[in-house]
Write a structure and sequence with these properties.
It is a single chain. This protein folds into three domains: about 80 residues, Orthogonal Bundle (Arc Repressor Mutant, subunit A); about 80 residues, Periplasmic binding protein-like II (D-Maltodextrin-Binding Protein, domain 2, 3-Layer(aba) Sandwich), CATH 3.40.190; about 100 residues, Periplasmic binding protein-like II (D-Maltodextrin-Binding Protein, domain 2). It is built from ten helices and eleven strands. It is elongated and about 70 Å long. Keywords: DNA-binding, Membrane, Transcription, Transcription regulation, Transmembrane, Transmembrane helix. It comes from Agaricicola taiwanensis. InterPro entries: LysR_HTH_N, LysR_subst-bd, WH-like_DNA-bd_sf, WH_DNA-bd_sf.
Length: about 290
């Protein structure tokens, strides 16, 4: 049994698609298929059911997936420690982070990634939602944590991390905090604070305007911390993605008829020609439990 076979199997288990697994592994599809077949022969059982275009793991495949994942992780750590200790080599990646994504959502993963990749050095840069793709394609950044990623570009690999709803944020002692949801009429009666970087602003304003509600903000700012702190201190309410609170003292509630959400994802240049550290980081993102 070879480590390459284990990596190929893990990529196949993640994608359940031989073509995609081969691309992720940096080999041809026939090479990956033969490696999986040899692995099945060595283990004495079928690992993957092949049903036309559909594939799924067998019971044996599911049983060994976690064991193989541990082996692959340990092998990567051994290589990383060797590079770091023996050669004194570190690999640096520059990642953009859209500034409306709460830092706790990213730093938890970053801490995990730095433990798993001892040779890794990360540079995190704040970016706006609109500039991420341009900076990625121009090579200014190696990857980016973004919101509602643009699809359809074959050069870009996208890993969807989680979705989060848009809710109404208010102070914990607010009169509406005890309710399960807030009506549009109740919203219209509140002092409104405007997050200028919010991706939902246009859609929220259009939704309210179509119902003859015009919110005139009492405070506007691009500073997430400033707006949220003002809300927590009772200056008014604001719209906020449900996992994006960065200050204490906030309560979030849904607004009736306002059903908006966003996808938070990681994007990077696709293909086996990208840096090994970036490919490994992408796998860690795929396997990380974000919820």
């Amino acid at each position: 049994m070879e480590l390459n076979q284990i990596r190929y199997f893990l990529n196949l288990a993640d994608t359940l698609n031989f073509t995609e697994a081969a691309m992720r592994s940096g080999v041809s599809q026939p090479t990956l298929t033969r490696a999986i077949q040899r692995l099945e022969q060595e283990l004495g059982g079928t690992l993957v059911y092949r049903d036309g275009k559909d594939s799924r793991l067998t019971a044996l495949g599911r049983d060994i997936q976690s064991e193989f994942a541990e082996i692959a992780d340990r092998e990567q750590r051994v290589r990383a420690i060797s590079l770091n200790r023996v050669r004194g080599r570190r690999e640096a990646l520059t990642l953009g982070v859209v500034n409306t994504i709460a830092p706790a959502l990213i730093t938890g993963f970053v801490t995990h990634a730095l433990r798993q990749m001892p040779m890794l050095e990360l540079v995190l840069q704040p970016i706006s939602r609109d500039e991420g793709m341009e900076r990625l394609l121009s090579g200014q950044i190696d990857g980016c944590f973004c919101t509602d990623p643009t699809a359809g570009n074959a050069k870009i690999a996208t890993v969807e991390m989680f979705r989060e709803r848009l809710l109404l944020a208010m102070a914990q002692g607010h009169s509406l905090a005890s309710q399960g949801s807030v009506s549009l009429v109740e919203l219209s009666e509140q002092p409104y604070l405007d997050r200028l970087q919010c991706e939902f602003r246009t859609r929220v304003n259009d939704h309210l305007r179509n119902r003859a509600i015009i919110m005139i903000p009492r405070l506007r700012s691009e500073r997430e911390d400033l707006i949220q702190q003002a809300v927590a201190e009772g200056a008014g309410v604001c719209m906020l993605p449900e996992r994006s609170a960065i200050v204490e003292g906030l309560t979030l509630r849904p607004v009736d008829t306002l059903d908006l959400s966003r996808t938070v994802a990681f994007q990077s240049i696709s293909g086996s020609g990208t840096a090994a550290a970036l490919r490994q980081l992408r796998v860690l993102i795929e396997r990380y439990v974000w919820c």
